[in-house]
Amino acid sequence: MTTPRTTNRPPRRDAPQRGQGQWALGYREPLNPNERMKKDSDGLEVRQRILDIYAHTGFGGIDPSDLRGRMRWMGLYTQRAQGIPGGKTAVLEPEELEDSYFMMRARIDGGQLTSDALRVLGGISTEFGRDVADVTDRQNVQYHWIRIEDVPEIWRRLESVGLSTMEACGDVPRVMLGCPLAGILEDEVVDATDVIAATVEKYVGSPEFSNLPRKWKTSMSGCVDHCTEPEIDDVSFVGVRNEAGEAGYDLWVGGGLSTNPMFAQRIGVFVRPDQVTDVWAACTAVFRDYGYRRQRNRARIKFLVADWGPEKFRQVLQDEYLGEALPDGPAPAPAKHDQRDHVGVSRQKDGRNAVGFALRTGRISGSLLTTIADLADEYGEGRIRTTTQQKLVILDVPDERVEALVEALAAHDLQVRPSAFRRGTMACTGLEFCKLAIVETKQHAQDLYAELEKRLPDFDTPVGINVNGCPNSCARFQTADIGFKGSMVRDDNGEMVEGFQVHLGGHLGVEATFGRKFRGHKVTKAETADYCERVLRGFLERRTPGESFAHYVSRAEEAWLL
């Protein structure tokens, strides 16, 4: 499939008087600094400058447009300088907030790793990143404290095991999410491993899609639990069987969170596995050509889909990009389980077991990643997976070795059977390293679940507690049972301190909804444990048999939730 060239296409007759920066309508003149930066030099071109120039000159020699723009195309963001409080985030300029170190993101498409690859990831953290690493909720591994001088060697090591940082950030196709147990579990609808690999190989790093209006998040999965959370991705291929019993995918487009959360919409077509890469490229091209580039805060595809509706999106996709109609398709079955993290012991279709375990809100050390690689070799066959819930899974464990592995992991505080609070808590990078953050998150989230374990030791209902350092929702606060959005709040003494706006009862799946929020209702960081305990005790007292926390919140009186 080839995507249409739009460089010289004249504006359509129905084009608005003031364009939104859509290339397909003739509005190609850069309309904001980000678009000018991309026009001046493709983001992919920064790789060679890093190798030839910046790795030798050091941080001080990096061109500002590369430093705060194109470096993202290679998975690099400048890191927040230590000691700058959250109240300064919106006051200081980027160059005042940043340190001379980088956050680096290694993309792990489909979450698939070998033990050799995990050892390399761990070694990079230990040797170059002060032994700090984060397993993200996009199945990546993220580093901090990276020096530009070390980047070429880090790339060499990653590429030696089939990994890279290519397009891990930037206005490009980001990591492609897949079920960590794809091809492993007997009840999956379809194994998306091959379609992810084919799409990544053909298009990641291609100039065809290296200049999109904004980030482009993809998931492809046949998981019966919908573990990649397709409801909130830009484009998702969701496993389904058509009326003839053929396995394929239902196409969803236009999901996303941040400050204007929207759920993806079904386009209503059935996509065969051999069509996925072409249909993905066509969807991406629609976004590239029709996406709103004038205002960056409206440059995600969710705004285009909201304006067009799924019917028009389908028509443009088929008529202008695919050149053929796709058949109508059925909706997928609802998620089989509410928890989508694959934590615990799951039976593989070959009779062995997948053992999933919880980290500490995704935070881990390179040394421990290396230990996990060794455990995967000792108890399995060296296959490890990352999940979209900041968890890890070791595959291929025989029945007689499961409990020994559970104990070996527990010795490192890696929990296969965690408490509801440990299992359900996620946190973004937060103030420690992120220039956008307002509050610290990682340690606070760990302290929070530990405190709730003490106060409510018998609480056994699944509950998601997502802690975010700012409104951008990297840890998905709007879809959590209890979502905390970082902000500065006034305490009882009238002082401005770190705190959170509360969102309650968010959930995905059937009747998906974003969490309820209450005007002016915020809690200080010091109050979060008290608040959670109060609300959860109320749930335990008032719930009906089998009722989820999210359903309880939907019917709760406001006074019960404050």
TrEMBL record:
Skewed-composition ranges (Basic and acidic residues): 335-347
Domain of life: Bacteria
Uppermost EC category: oxidoreductase
Enzyme Commission identifier(s): 1.8.7.1
Nitrite/Sulfite reductase ferredoxin-like domain mapped to chain residues: 99-160, 347-411
GO MF term (any one): heme binding
Cofactor(s) annotated in UniProt: [4Fe-4S] cluster
Gene3D superfamilies named in the record: 3.90.480.20, Sulfite Reductase Hemoprotein, domain 1
Xref: PANTHER family: FERREDOXIN--NITRITE REDUCTASE, CHLOROPLASTIC
Name of this protein: assimilatory sulfite reductase (ferredoxin)
Origin species: Geodermatophilus dictyosporus
High-level lineage: Bacteria, Bacillati, Actinomycetota, Actinomycetes, Geodermatophilales
